[in-house]
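Folding Task

Wanted — backbone structure
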Amino acid sequence: MDLREEKVQRILSKYKFHDVAVEELQKIHRIYPGMIPSSGTYTFSDGTQKDLLKLIGNIPVKYEGRSYNFPIQLWLMDSFPFTPPICLLRPTPEMVIREGKHVDSKGRIHLPGLHSWDFPKSSVVGLLNEMIRKFEEDPPLSSKRDNKDPHELLAFVSNIQINDGGNRHPDQQINKVSVIGGGDLGMATVMSILAKCTVAKLVFIDIAESSTKGGSTDLEIFNLPRVEVSRDMSASAGSRVIVVTANAWSSEQSYVSVVQTNVDLYRGIIPNLAHLSPHAVMLIASQPVDIMTHVAWRQSGLPPTRVIGAGCNLDSERLSHILDINLNTHKQAWVIGELSDNKVPVMSNTGLSSSAQAEIAPGSSSTKPLLDRAFDMMKNRGQRSWSVGLSIADITNSILTDKMKTHSVSTLAQGWGGIGAEVFLSLPCILGSNGSTRLAGVSLGQEEDSKLGDTVTSLSNLISQFRI
């Protein structure tokens, strides 16, 4: 294997684990000398590109007593060999791919060894051996003319353009979720999403600059299925939901200065995340959540319907549960406003099991005592990392499944209920695959209206003090 070619050397020099990658490539050459390295431009599913190394060659496969060569192409990510390669068949225009257990309709190869990749126990040599075994059981190509001569069927093809999702239409995204930020909340979010949601892939990116970093090593040690641990933001490309839990608290005494460190952290990650996943819904859980959701919206360039904060969703789910189980109202309820003492409870005018579109019931003398009593019953319930993680997973599930469930999430409140300022606070929003849609505003009681007014003024004054 000649790694001395100028283009190959130039690209390989950018690999994060250069020396280890070279060692692995030399091992591949000793066992499979026909796998030739070359340079190429890898196109991600969101249209972004990166110069990477690829291996092109044939693997020998025995089928019905005869030996054949299967043409394949392996793209090596820049974190190779700690991340698995992207493996594809390379058929001619006269051939069709036989979709099966280990190959999809676009020629993307899926093997157990790829899903459970764990270097150094995993290697490309081991992967190629596994590929040969699987293809001997179930050959992945056939002829359009039904010609069964494998010599013709498995012709070598070059210059095929691929991306990390095959030829999938850009609107057909896989259920990929990325969680940005380490610590207890990041870990709780990862575990909760795995338990609650059906995801094809979950990427956990531990931000080095975050004060909540840590935990990713344990995920790497225990090698959870469908979870990729990375420190490279580009691993989040093509996500449907991006959850940001990172915080960067400083030792400064001023509250504004403390929050500004988080704003500065976001400036380094949010635009990049939005660029890598332009169709994603961004879900913010960093603190203070209403301010940081506002910051993320400004920095991302995404529409406000696709930047939301975890906000008062946890309190809202607890409130609905208490009203239903303890007070027998069987009505959905939400907590709105800022995640502070100025929170306001409101109730739906439809039952929990109703198929009718949820609406906020106008404040009345009959509902206020119930809401106040339920609110009192919630007072001793803190927001621990695992409970916030469960709330985030619930929101994520509504987006991934296009559930159209109403959640109280932090959203752009301008124009709702007479709010004129550009602020983010928690309001009941219907969540689906395209993001959030606010429920219509209603007239609140004098006390509730005053609390919301104070919240809007406080948030508006605070956001003006940050360098976003």
Q: What stands out?
A: Residues 255-276 form the longest helix (22 residues). The mean pLDDT is 83. The first strand starts at residue 36 and ends at 43. DSSP finds 13 helices and 18 strands in the chain.
